[in-house]
Design a protein that fits this description.
Elements lengths: L1 E13 L14 E4 L4 E6 L9 E11 L10 H11 L5 E4 L4 E6 L3 H9 L4 E4 L1
Parallel strand pairs: 1-7
Antiparallel strand pairs: 1-3, 1-4, 2-3, 4-6, 5-6
């Protein structure tokens, strides 16, 4: 299975209201729950006012459209990276899944994934 490593540095952050986010940013992921609004966006486009902020992430995209009947893809990736003591921040969309890894762990993640049935290609 192919994973595309996107080169854009990303930030995971929280805001107090949806109006605090520019919805034209790409890539952009917003998760809204009763407890919080979490956002993933390019570091260069993070608003000045955030509640919390964690810089230094890079994103792997699972290439292709994943059928909802597929089982265990995120589990396999997270297991490989866990063995290397690499934490992840996972996102899912209708079509595919994304795995964020801290930038200082990307090379180690690429090596681990390439050695375990995945092929990492660079953006």
């Amino acid at each position: 299975m192919k994973l595309l490593l996107l080169k854009e540095p990303l930030t995971v952050f929280q805001v107090g209201a949806l109006k605090d986010i520019d919805l034209a940013i790409s890539p952009l992921n917003i998760s809204v729950t009763a407890d919080e609004i979490s956002v993933v966006a390019p570091t260069s486009q993070v608003p000045a006012e955030t509640l919390n902020r964690e810089d230094g992430w890079q994103m792997f995209k699972i290439e292709g459209v994943l059928d909802f009947s597929l089982i265990g893809i995120l589990s396999k990736i997270s297991g490989i990276l866990a063995k290397e003591e690499i934490s992840i921040f996972a996102l899912s969309t209708f079509n595919t899944d994304y795995i964020l890894v801290k930038s200082d762990k990307v090379n180690k993640a690429v090596q681990a994934l390439n050695g375990n049935d995945f092929v990492v290609i660079h953006d």
